[in-house]
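Work Package 3 (structural annotation) set out to generate three-dimensional models for the target panel prioritized at the project kickoff. During this period the team completed the workflow that converts sequence records into discrete structure tokens, so that structures can be stored uniformly alongside our sequence database. As a representative example, we reproduce one entry of 225 residues exactly as it appears in the project archive.
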Amino acid sequence: MKIDKILLSLSTLFVMAYANDATSIKIINKPIDFGEERIEMTKEYIKKHYGFEVENIEIEPKIIVLHWTADMSFDKSFNRLKPQKLLSDRKDIQKASALNVSAHFLVKRDGTIYRLMPENWMARHVIGLNYSTIGIENVGGKGNKKDDLTPEQLKANIALVRYLKKSHPSITHLIGHHEYRNMENTEFWLEMDKGYRTVKSDPGEAFVSKVYEATVDLNLTRAPK
């Protein structure tokens, strides 16, 4: 079943999801293109990089990965994630797969949260860890500034982490994209291509630490140092 049919079959366009007794978040569904072609490319990605033959692309989330888009425009950020195939300027990861990068959520600079795809489907957003992670992209990061993201995005990420932990009790870790390689010696790392790595700086230690400190009661684990 295509993603648009799944998401738009919800009773309302948005979901009021309660993370705990005191916090609620509004999540707006804005599906990226995730038809049969993208699903099949995802299966091939799983086979090539993780060694699994799968019938579907469902995952059991264990890790939340925070990102930034490296673009200050919401529309441009969304439109990079929307197509099923990778854009031609992503030569750094093109050899690994034609599957486009994606994320489960995209957070606007005013803190508005958009769900781009089902939370239990695999997205291509972090090398080695895609098969157990939920990706949260934040619009921003122009010039790789350390503290570029907004207070509204920080608040939204905190609420979203709480919502995800409640929705998926299997989640045990919270990391930033910039520290994904610190996970290589953990049980979660599955990448079989030793030459497939990238250098990342998003979303910065300051932002991830603030989200973690605000959700410390969830007992989530950070990436090893």
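The first strand starts at residue 14 and ends at 20.
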